[in-house]
Amino acid sequence: MGDADATLAPRKKTVSAIGDRVFHGVTATSALIVLALIGGIAAALVVGAWPALTKFGPAFVTSMDWNPVTDEYGAAVAIFGTLASSALAMVIAVPVSFGIALFVTELAPVWMRQPISTAVELLAAIPSIIYGMWGLFVFAPFLSTYVQPWLSSALGDWPVVGYLFSGPPIGIGIFTAGMVLAIMIIPFITAVMRDTFEVVPGVLKESSYALGATTWEVARSVILPYTKTGVIGGIMLGLGRALGETMAVTFVIGNAHSIPGGLFYPGNSIAATLANEFTEATGEIYTSALIALGLVLFVITLIVLILARLLLLRLSAQEGQ
Amino acid sequence: MTLFQKRKAINTFNMAMCVATTVFGLFWLVWLLWTLISHGIGYIDWEVFTEITPAPGNDGGLSNAIVGSLIVTGIGTLIGAPIGIFAGTYLAEYGRNSKLAALVRFFNDVLLSAPSIIIGLFVYEVIVVTMGHFSALAGGIALSLIMIPLNVRITENMMRLVSDQMREAAAALGIPRWKVITRIIYRAALSGIITGVILGIARIAGETAPLLFTALNNNFFSTDVLGPIANLPIMIFQFALSPYEDWHHLAWVGAFLITFTILALNVLVRLVLRPSK
């Protein structure tokens, strides 16, 4: 009996020690895979883009050529389209998200808050390709029939602004892409804003209400200053999403390799160029130029997302979590 | 107008704008869903589930695309979910406050929002080029890379909700750490972890961009994971951009099926599995 115990006890200990080591190893490896992924993506893109980068040099980013026949490629048109459509999306999505977040946290009756939050979150669950199809078959015709002619005639004669709203009202182009992107990123920005608004201490809000502040004044002078970093982080997160959005933009941006003369002109984005041309690209330089485009997109979104996360980290440090 | 009236007017106007923006946001959801229902539901019949995708002008269905989507999503889940859950476990348990965990957490959040088309490019470079051809396996791996960050995040959050007293109580009984985690913490956080997996499936089921350069498409019925495979998102992409009316109808049916499956999964986890706050 005593002997059996003496032999059993140490063995049990080793089994559990081995179990711990194995399980620790498995989970740590999985965690390392996440890190390796970011590095791996960067490395694979650089390797793939190398032939194009060495051939075109830094001029790749500023060149407006995109000619598979002469094998001359530049990223400027795609970068411009990506930035322009995302900028338009931000102009629309930021105020709307702010309004929704404020409504959900401050105005709406309690029973309404969860259903509205859920409904907005469902917008984010709908796949990008569905937005694209809807954008192409339903939204673009609607814009070209009702919205674009009206915008052109109302604002077309204004200086600067008129230039933006010029172009053929065909429903396909930077304007429609920006609108669809706006709808797609509203849920992401709203979710972050709502979460940060919710952590504002009630005492702060109540104190200013007690001084006679209106709801808007509380929002502007108490909630916004308190949640500044979080709000900016959320906006950057939305921007990161908009920059890399592929399928929806591919359907509605028009795929024209030229710098658009106004918002209504068709253009192209990095992601849309990749989606349209990558599988059909022939020749080493063509493929490599497309991967180089992907590398540019990766670098831009990486910077934006890292800034967003740093801001959000600072916010949670401020909360003392 | 007195100052008070002015402040009140500004307040009323801005609050009205808040309501308006909320209506604006929800309006798109209604419009999108209505479009899918009105365009898609009329063309759903048995053939959709029994026939393969047709040549233009012929009758056909989506059976190959539906089965292909299930296979690719299945591969993505089988690879992505375990890695995501284990990595999340590391962040919540062994790593917790370590520098490595902070780094992983940070880049995981970055990866969560990284453009999915970049993931597709990466898998193309690493797997499709190495294998020499497009395949369902490559598509599944691409989808798993999208699923991993989501599962890491949700698993960590859910495991951290389990109180430390439970860990301490178990440790006081002399139970080794790995048993504490697998038998106690996993059990306590189970509904949360399952939520993460289901949300991950819902997320990757409709992803198109990562499949473009990996699984490609296939107009015939195939269950070969090493060859190109038909799948709903790419089918929608090709059929919607084709000039044929009957292909458009099939694309709408596919869009309807995929969207309502995803929304059903989302609503399901919210109603059934979400732990009440």
Written description of the protein model:
The complex is a heterodimer of chains A (321) and B (277). In chain A, α4 (110-125) crosses α7 (174-198). Chain A is mostly helical and 321 residues long. Chain A is built from twelve helices and two strands. In chain A, strands 1-2 form a two-stranded antiparallel ribbon. Chain A has helices spanning 2-56, 59-62, 76-107, 110-125, 128-155, 161-164, 174-198, 202-210, 215-244, 247-252, 270-277, 284-318; strands spanning 66-67, 72-73. Helices cover 79% and strands 1% of the residues of chain A. Chain A folds into two domains: 1-56; 61-320, MetI-like fold, CATH 1.10.3720.10. By secondary structure, chain B is mainly alpha-helical. Chain B has two domains: 1-41; 46-273, MetI-like fold. Chain B has twelve helices and no strands. Chain B has helices spanning 3-40, 46-50, 63-92, 99-112, 116-131, 136-161, 164-172, 177-188, 190-205, 209-212, 232-240, 245-273. In chain B, α5 crosses α6. The radius of gyration of chain B is 23 Å and the shape is globular. The model of chain B has no long low-confidence stretch (mean pLDDT 91). At the A-B interface, α1, α3, α4, α5 and α7 of A face α1, α3, α4, α5 and α6 of B. Chain B: Belongs to the binding-protein-dependent transport system permease family. CysTW subfamily. Chain B: This is Phosphate transport system permease protein PstA. Chain B: GO terms for molecular function: phosphate transmembrane transporter activity. Chain B: Keywords: Cell membrane, Membrane, Phosphate transport, Transmembrane, Transmembrane helix, Transport.
